Amino acid sequence: MQTAMNLNEIAEGFANPALGTQKVFRQVLDAMAHPGRIIELDEWVPVEGLDEATTALALTLLDFETSLWTDLPRGASALQWVTFHCGSPMGSSVSEADFALVTRPESMPRLESFCLGSEGSPHQSTTLILQVEHLEARLGRRLMGPGIDGSCDLDAGGLPDHFWSSRKNARALFPMGVDILFACNNRIAAMPRTTDWEETPCM
Description:
By secondary structure, the chain is an alpha/beta fold. It has one domain (17-192): Rossmann fold (3-Layer(aba) Sandwich), CATH 3.40.50.11310. The chain is built from four helices and nine strands, in the order αβαβαββββαβββ. The protein has helices spanning 17-33, 52-61, 77-86, 162-171; strands spanning 39-40, 68-70, 99-102, 127-131, 135-144, 152-156, 179-184, 187-191, 196-198. A six-stranded mixed β-sheet has the order 1-8-7-4-3-2. Strand 5 and strand 6 form a beta hairpin. Helix 1 packs across helix 2 (52-61). The longest helix has 17 residues, at 17-33. The chain starts with 16 loop residues before the first helix and ends in a 5-residue tail after the last strand.
């Protein structure tokens, strides 16, 4: 049974939706152009169960034309907020959704489970928004590829053991693959499908 939505209890979105989405979209483009770079967002809203960056990404990237898969529990206030403000069709399977909003990455599906696109239409793949426990530079895995000057290190906390091996497998299927946006507090970092990784050498 679907839980009725109480509009009086739903948190607000951007105070100025047009300006807010424009600002965040430019910062998302900057993050995608410079994988591994941590960017503090200028616009966000507080919503219980979601980090500030997650709300900003949802308001900016999701709409009634983008299907969504999420691990948010049915009836959760955060899910009602996403449904109300973004209007994305829910109920898409992991393998079909345009976007995936993951708030519990430790139990997320393997990346191969999401839509990787096809050789003829690689852009028709899932973009993942992963809300992680922490996001730190100069730690974690070493990222390499287009948009990175040499290499950079990024640590995203709370990811399952299979994430990085799944990411390596998906990278081998380029131009197919998934693009990833990490969100933590009011910060984001991107790992597009063009980015490869290796273990950080021990010092």
